[in-house]
Amino acid sequence: MENSGDGQQQQQQDLAERAYLVQVNGYDSLATPKDLNLPRPLSISDFAPAPMHGSTLRVAYQGVPGAYSEAAACKAYPECEPVPCEQFEAAFQAVELWLADRAVLPVENSLGGSIHRNYDLLLRHRLHIVGEVQLPVHHCLLAMPGVSKADLRRVISHPQALAQCEHTLTRLGLSVAREAVDDTAGAAQFIAENNLRDTAAIASNRAAEIYGMNILANGIQDDAGNVTRFVMLAREPIIPRVDRPFKTSIVFAKEEATGSLFKVLSAFAFRDINLTKIESRPQRKKPLRIVDDNNSGKSQYFEYLFYIDFEASMADKRAQNALAELQEFTSFLRVLGSYPMDVTPLVGSPPL
Ligand SMILES: O=C(O)C(=O)Cc1ccccc1
C-alpha cells in the first residue's frame, strides 16, 4: 500500500469512520440502499432478545450486500437468507444469540495465507466449524458512471483485496492512494452514497450492480487463481461421517519438551492422514482469552499456537487415535470442527 505518514493515516481513519457512520446511521439521507430495500447490517448494539424466525437458514456475514462473504454464504447454503453484519464479532454474536443459524468467516487466501485475526475469533468464541467453501475471487475496479481512470485519486477496499490487486493497479497506471475499509462491497456503497468521483472501489461485479457503479476494469487480481477459503460456523458441531470426504481443523499448543512437534506430526503420518494445512503463530507476547465448553473464558499464555487441517473425519478411528496421542504432547488442544470438504472444482466457476 502506498499510504505513509500521519496525514494519510488520519485520512484513512477518517474514511473508515465515515464509512462506519454512514452504516450506523442508516440510510436516511441516502437514496441507494433504501430504494433497493437492502438489509441494514447488524451491529453489536442491535442484540436485544433474539426474535423467532421461520425455517429459512439465516447466515451472518461481515460486510454489506455484494461482499464476497455473502457469495460464500450463498454457495454453501443456496436457499439461505444472508444477514449482513458490521463486524465479525457481530456475526459471531448473531449466531450465539440465535439471531442467525450460521456465520461465515474467511480464513485463508491462496495469495496471502491465513487470516490470523479470524482464527483468533474462533478461539475467543465457542462456535464450531460445520462446513467450508472455496471461492474463486474475481475483483473489479468500480467507479461512478462517467468517471474514468484518469479522474481517480484514490482506490478503497478491504485490505486483502487491495493486496491482491496491487501490481495490476500499478500496471493500469493507478499509482494513487490506497485506503483500507471493512469490506469490498462497503467500499462501493460508500462511493455510491457520497457520489465520490475521484475514488474507485475494488469489489465484485455484483457490488457494481447493487450500487449502480461502472466496471472500469474486470479481473484485476494479480493471481488468476485467486481463491479464498471460508468456513461456516454453528452453535453445535455436526455429526461427523465417513461416507464422504471430511476435513478436521484443530488448534494446539505443544508441550515445551524437545521433539514434541515432530511427535505431533508423526501421529498423523503413521496413520496415513494427509495434512492440508499446518501453520504456527507466535503467541508469546499476547495472552489469549479462550472460551471453554461452559462458555467461561480464561486468559492463557502460549509460546506458539499451531493450526492443522487434516483430511479425515472425527468419526474415523485413525483421527480419534491420532488426537488421543496428540494429547500427550500438547498443553492445549481444541477441535475447531470436523466437516465435509468442499470438493467442487474451482475451474469454470462463474466469476463473482
Ligand atoms: O470484503 C469482502 O467482500 C469479504 O468478504 C472479505 C474478502 C475480501 C477480499 C477477498 C476475499 C474476501
Automatic annotation (TrEMBL):
Positions of the ACT domain: 249-340
UniProt-annotated location(s): Plastid, Chloroplast stroma
EC number: 4.2.1.91
Enzyme class of the recorded protein, top EC level: lyase
Main location group: plastid
Superkingdom of source: Eukaryota
Pathway(s) served: Amino-acid biosynthesis; L-phenylalanine biosynthesis; phenylpyruvate from prephenate: step 1/1; Amino-acid biosynthesis; L-phenylalanine biosynthesis; L-phenylalanine from L-arogenate: step 1/1
Record GO biological process: L-phenylalanine biosynthetic process
GO molecular function, one term: prephenate dehydratase activity
InterPro entries: ACT-like_dom_sf, ACT_dom, Chor_mutase/pphenate_deHydtase, Preph_deHydtase, Preph_deHydtase_CS
PROSITE patterns assigned: ACT, PREPHENATE_DEHYDR_1, PREPHENATE_DEHYDR_2, PREPHENATE_DEHYDR_3
All copies of domain Prephenate dehydratase, residue ranges: 58-235
Alphabetic keyword roster: Amino-acid biosynthesis, Aromatic amino acid biosynthesis, Chloroplast, Lyase, Phenylalanine biosynthesis, Plastid, Transit peptide
One Pfam family linked to the record: PDT
Reactions mediated catalytically: L-arogenate + H(+) = L-phenylalanine + CO2 + H2O
CDD domains reported for this sequence: ACT_CM-PDT (cd04905), PBP2_Ct-PDT_like (cd13631)
Entry-linked PANTHER family: PREPHENATE DEHYDRATASE P PROTEIN, PREPHENATE DEHYDRATASE-RELATED
NCBIfam families: PRK11898.1
Role played: Converts the prephenate produced from the shikimate-chorismate pathway into phenylalanine.
Protein name: Arogenate dehydratase
Lineage: Eukaryota, Viridiplantae, Streptophyta, Embryophyta, Tracheophyta
